[in-house]
């Protein structure tokens, strides 16, 4: 399972929307399907309490920071959201013939610009920690409102993921409740 946060590409998606894509597109174009039975069971479990969408998820090698870049990827790839990890997990699942599911919550919407200090930190893989982030914020204090907005949306997305975790529908198909062996 690929679990976590994503950036919205579809302009209709709000922060906190759960994305359960039917396929993941790798940066080089490989397409990986998710397990329909698992995805549909989770979708049914969430649909009455949480905004949920399907579609395609695009994995990208770096953050997509501007609304114009997001719109371009949306038009070209027709993916509803973007992340940086799911294709790698999908590839391993496919190689090992394992069921595969993606659960992502939208943090930044298609209309949101990511603060440049965050996109730079993500591109560096977070190797330099809090001190580098605070230094970048000190050099670009005008980005503080965007950072605060994104932090609030992060909290909304985190609560959405907590709802998914409590749903009881995360067990892969073929596994019995409470057991770690195939049925």
Quick structural summary:
This protein has 183 residues and is α/β, with parallel strands linked by helices. The chain has helices spanning 36-46, 67-77, 86-95, 116-123, 129-139, 144-166; strands at residues 2-8, 18-19, 23-25, 31-33, 52-53, 56-59, 81-83, 102-106. The longest helix has 23 residues, at 144-166.
**What's the CATH architecture of the domain at 2-113 and 157-166?**
3-Layer(aba) Sandwich
Average pLDDT level = 88
Rg, nearest Å: 17 Å
CATH topology of the domain at 2-113 and 157-166, which one? Rossmann fold
Q: Please state roughly what percent of the residues sit in beta strands, choosing from under 5%, 5-15%, 15-25%, 25-35%, 35-45% or over 45%.
A: 15-25%
Give the uncertain stretches in residue-range form: none
Helix content, binned percent: 40-55%
Shape: globular
H and E order? EEEEHEEHEHEHHH
Sheet with most strands: strand arrangement? 4-3-6-7-1-8-2-5
Structural class: alpha/beta
| CATH uppermost class of the domain at 2-113 and 157-166 | Alpha Beta
| Main beta-sheet strand count, sense and barrel state | 8 strands, mixed
Distance between the termini: 19 Å
The counted number of beta strands is 8
Helix run count: 6
The CATH homologous superfamily of the domain at 2-113 and 157-166 is named Nucleoside phosphorylase domain
